[in-house]
Structures are given as structure tokens and as C-alpha cells.
Amino acid sequence: MDTNAIVILDFISTFAFAWVGARVAASKNLDYGGIFFVAGVSAVAGGTFRNLVLQMRPAWLDHPYLFIAISIAVLFTILQGKKDAIGKVALVLDSFGLAFAVVAAVEVSLKSNVPTYAAIVLGTLSGVLGGLTRDVLCQVPPVLLHRETSGTVSILGAVVFVTLYKAGQDSLISAIISGLLIVALRLLSVKFKINLPKLKSN
Question: CA-based Rg of the chain, rounded to a whole angstrom?
Fold first, then answer.
């Protein structure tokens, strides 16, 4: 992908993850410091994990604009005040952030010559770790583990990207197709409350 496009998408996805993290933190009555911390961890956890596994420097060490995105998200949250609902705009942005995080991680992993299965795992974890960490810090049941399908759609998106990429498709086209698939399935699962099956009580 074009460098400028990557920077723009990275900024938007960081803002989206940070905004949702800040909103969740605010709903749990954390102070400004707690909101900023949760927002920051939500935004960078997945990418940091990916880079450390691939023995690369975390992106936030070299790209200070990521902290600008986090700060703007926190400022928006403070100006909005305490609200329980995430909101449609934040949800849509978060879905696009999830898509970018997954496809970026898969692409970086493949270019680092890791096995295909490892690229899929890293792509999935990069997409969901921020939200999982956010929920743990805010002491709420992790969304990843009991509702929505962010983990499932991340795996599907990663598999589609790898399949297209290995078939010789251009990386940008692969990213667009798999990214839009992730966004569409995530939003549909939220709208229609689609979840993976759960065990029923006897």
C-alpha cells in the first residue's frame, strides 16, 4: 500500500480504538488519567504485540502522530461527557480500525516470511488484543469472549487476505477486499446481534 495511505489509515484506526477505549473507561467512571491510559493501551496493544513477535520496534516509538490520535480521542470523550453507549459513529470507525489492524498485521507478517498460519494468528490477535485489554482494565466482561463476532470476522478476513495474496493478487486489492469483508460482517453481527453458539444449561 502507498505510504501516505498507510499513515492516514493508521491514524484513523488508532483514533477509533482509542475513542472506543476512552468511552468504555468513561462509562466506568475512571478519571482523566485512567481514560487516557485505557485509550492508549486499546490503541497500541495489538500493533505492539505484532511487532514484538516479529522482532520489530513498536510503531509508537517512531510515529508520534499516534499519540495525537489518542489525545484527540480522549479530548472528544471528555467533551462528550459520561455516556454508556458507544454510539454508531464510534462503532463504525472501530470496525474500520479492526479491519486495518488485521490486514496490516497479516501483510507485515507475510513480508516477514512467517508461515501462513502464523500470519493469520498474528493478524487476528493484532485486531482483538486492544479491545480485550480494554475490557480487562475496565473490569467488564470482554466483548470478544461473549458477544459480537470480532474474533471470528478477524480470522475470516485474515484467511481471505492470505488466500488472495498467495494467489498472486495485489496486496492493496487483497487488503480492500478482506478489510471490507471484516467491516461488513462486524457491523451486521452487531446490528442483528449475531453471536457464536453458547453452551445451554441442562
Answer: 16
The answer to whether the beta carbons of residues 106 and 98 sit under 8 Å apart is no
Closest CA to 157 of 89, 94, 112, 105: 105
- Measure the CA–CA gap between 107 and 50, rounded to whole angstroms: 11
- What confidence tens digit (pLDDT) does each residue in 73-129 have? 999 999 988 776 677 888 888 899 999 999 999 999 999 999 999 999 999 999 999
CA distance 168 to 171: 9
Question: DSSP string covering 173-185, please?
Answer: HHHHHHHHHHHHH
Angstrom distance (rounded) from CA 133 to CA 136: 5
Cell numbers for 74, please give them: 480522549
Angle at 140 between CA 134 and CA 141, to 5 degrees: 100
Is the dihedral angle over the CA atoms 160, 165, 167, 168 positive or is it negative? positive
The reply to whether the predicted model has a pTM over 0.85 is yes
Query: Mind spelling out the 3-state secondary structure of 129-155?
Result: HHHHHHHHHCCCCCHHHHCCCHHHHHH
